[in-house]
Every structure is written in structure tokens, then in C-alpha cells.
Amino acid sequence: MSLPVMLGMGLQNLYTVVDLFWVGRLGMGAVAAITIAGTLFFFFFSLGQAIGTGSLAIVSRAFGRRNFEHAAHTVRNTLFMGAAVGLFFGGASFLFAEPIITALGGSGEVVELGAAYLRPYAFGFAFQIVSLVLGFALRGSGDMKAPTYSLMIATLINIALDPLLIFGWGPIPAMGVAGAGLATMISTLFSAVYVVAVISAGKSNLHVPFSTDFKPDWPLIKEVFKIGAPSGAQFMLLSFSFMVIIWIVADKGAGPVAAAGIGWRLMHMSLAPVIGIGTAVATLVGQNLGVEKVSRASSSVKKGVLASVLCAGVISVTFAAFPDFFIGFFSDSREVVALGRAVMRAMAFNGVVLGVVIVLNSAFGGAGDNVPSMIGASVRSFFSVGLAFLLPAVTPFGLTAVWASIPIASFANMLILLHIYRKGSWKTRMKKREEAYCASGSAVAGPCSLPPPD
């Protein structure tokens, strides 16, 4: 089940790495600009994560009980939520591009380049969130292939358009970093259209016929947010901590920002197998708890943690052993390569620790209990930001101390999640939520009339 998700996450990371590869040919300032602008991606990803995690938990549980009507009803409402959120924040980012880049630490040329990248990119926020949310729902139904195909479409289109729009060809003018943002917007549009077509045409496990008389189910929307908000808050906190770290190093110039951006994206690329394993674990946990097979859900988590640590360990060791090769692939600046060595080694240790964190967070999400994820992320953000300020001031290691704050914070996050997992309260959280939702008398096409599972 996790292999299609691994491929999908690999494609998603390739998608962002392709931008970095071509923009790297425009110079260190351009890489720094899309790094700063790209921090907003993590913020908007957190919004999609909140909606998507809530959708996955409810859809997977509905499928476990074979209540396909409630699954479709949930998807209609989460699609509405995703489109509304994407349009609002995408519009705001387009209108206030320069102030946003400046607030995130940009100055001079970096502000100009960052805003040029962000404006067309912002047009695609709604498409990105819709595609992300529906991908979660499809995975919750057990369909891992359609979200992978969606990412494949977006990646292939982005690969084709990036050099064409960045450097120009024939009648198409060279747009520089703006071309990279436009390529992203176009590719996410096609991705969103594909997933909507799949679920509306019944080409997947999840069949969601759409109608013009749709009315939002506000109690259900509230329930989706209750389940997904902690997970979304988790990613929002992490995006905030990354923004702060970029803001700290931006004071040292474009070189450290570019090195951080390259190292950060490479780390996320290395985590593709782990995220795939985590998504599969979330689905298995949700479906097994839906039919009250608690021991099978626990077994899925343990196997997922072991597999993720092995995968992350192999990839992280490779990155740590050959940092110059990987950094040099995206930038020919000696300054960026030299700074990137310390970044890559810190990210290598961070990747192994995150192997445990991601799977446990996914398990909690599949169980409908995302509070542990939020607690862990809060601690992680507090440590990473606090240590990023403190360590350079009390040690002679400068920027290296800033990078070291990231794995230290992740380790603290891991310890907290392991403690909460062992307590076991996550095993009954979704059942209690369902009982409260049914007792409210607001359930529409919900699980309330179902007999107990066999």
C-alpha cells in the first residue's frame, strides 16, 4: 500500500527540486528568493494538511464500515473547504507579495525576485490545496494510485515547462523566476482537474457525484477541522520555525539562505519513502480501528516505524557522506557548497529522527487523534527557534549551531510522541468523536445508523 505513496511523495519532492535546479542557473540570489517565497508553501501546506487529515480519518473509517455515502458526503465538504481556503490565501499572497518577502527576511534583489516568483505561484494555491485534500481522501479510501498519477501529471508538466518559461524559447519570452512560479501554477491546475475528474466519474474506490444543489454540512466541516486542526497546527508551527531560521540566516546574506533552501528540499526529498509509509499506516490504523481491530492497528504502527527508520537511515547517510555532490548539483557557488556541508550533515541526523516522528504522527492522524502531533510540533518549534537564537550566542560555531538546533528539536519531538503512543489513548479517540457527532443530531449520511461492526 505504501509503494504508490512513496512514488507520489518522491514525485512531489522532485517537483520542487526541479524548480530549484533550473532557478539555480540564475544565480545564488534567485535560489535565496525562491527559498524565502517557498516558506509560504509550508504554511499553505499546513492548511491543506488540516483539511486533508480530517478527511482521511473520516473517509478511511467510513470505508472500514462500508458507509460509502458518508465518505462521499465528507469529500464534497472538504473540497469546498479546500477551494475556499486556497482562494482566500492565494489572493492575499498575490496582493501583498513584496511585503511578505520583506517580512520573511528578504532585501534588495531577493525581494524583487521573490515577489516575481510568488505572484504566479499564488494563483495555484487553490489548485494545490484541492489536489492535496482530495489525495488524502483517495488514500483514505485505499486508493493509492490516483493521487500518485495526479502528482505524476503535475511533475511531468512542471519538468517540461520550467526551462521553457524560465529561459524562453522561440516566441516565448524568458521570464526568469516568474517562469518557475507560472510553471508551478499550470501544473497544479492539471493535477487538480485530474483528481476531481477521477472521483466524480467513479474511476476510483471513491465515487463522489457532484451536484449544483450542494449545501455545506457545517457540523461535519467543524468535525473535519477538529480532527485535522492539530495536524495542520503542527505543520504551521514547523513552517513558522523554518521561517524564523531563514530570517535569522538571511542577515548573513543570500549564501546561507540558498544553502538552507537546498538542504531543506533535499531532506524532504529523502523523506519521500517515510511519508509514503506514514500515509499507509494512517489508512491502516483508521480502517482497523473502524472495525475495532486495535491490535492490528498497533502492529501496523510498529512495522511502519521500523521500515521508516531503515529507509531514512540509508538515504541520510548517503547525503551526509557526499554533501558537496548534492549541493553542487543545484549551485556552482563555492560559498553555497561550503555552507551546505554543515546543513546536509545536520539534516542527515534529522531525517532519521523524523522517520519515527512522521509515522507516529500519521498513526495518530489515522486514529483521529492529532493532539499529540500538535504537542510534539509545539515543543519542536520552541526548541528549534530558541536554540537557533541561543546556540550561536553561547558557542563559537555560528551558522553550524543554527543548523544543529533542527535535529535537537526533532529528537525532543520524537521522545514526546513515543511517550504518548505508549499511553494508548489514541486507540479510542475517533470512536468517542463519532459518538459525540451522532449525539448532536446533526449527522448527515453519517455512521450513526450503522450496526456495530462484526
Structure notes:
This protein has 454 residues and is an all-alpha fold. The protein has one domain. It is 81% helix and 0% strand. The protein has helices at residues 2-23, 28-64, 68-95, 97-103, 109-123, 125-140, 145-167, 177-200, 218-250, 254-270, 272-290, 294-321, 323-328, 334-366, 371-394, 399-423, 429-439. Helix 6 (125-140) runs antiparallel to helix 7 (145-167) and helix 6 runs parallel beside helix 8. The longest helix is centred in the N-terminal third of the chain and has 37 residues, at 28-64.
Strand and helix map with partners:
Elements: H1 2-23, H2 28-64, H3 68-95, H4 97-103, H5 109-123, H6 125-140, H7 145-167, H8 177-200, H9 218-250, H10 254-270, H11 272-290, H12 294-321, H13 323-328, H14 334-366, H15 371-394, H16 399-423, H17 429-439
Characteristic terms for this protein:
454 residues; 17 helices; 81% helix
Give me a quick take on this structure.
The protein has one domain (2-439). The model is unreliable at 449-454 (pLDDT under 50). The chain is mainly alpha-helical and 454 residues long.
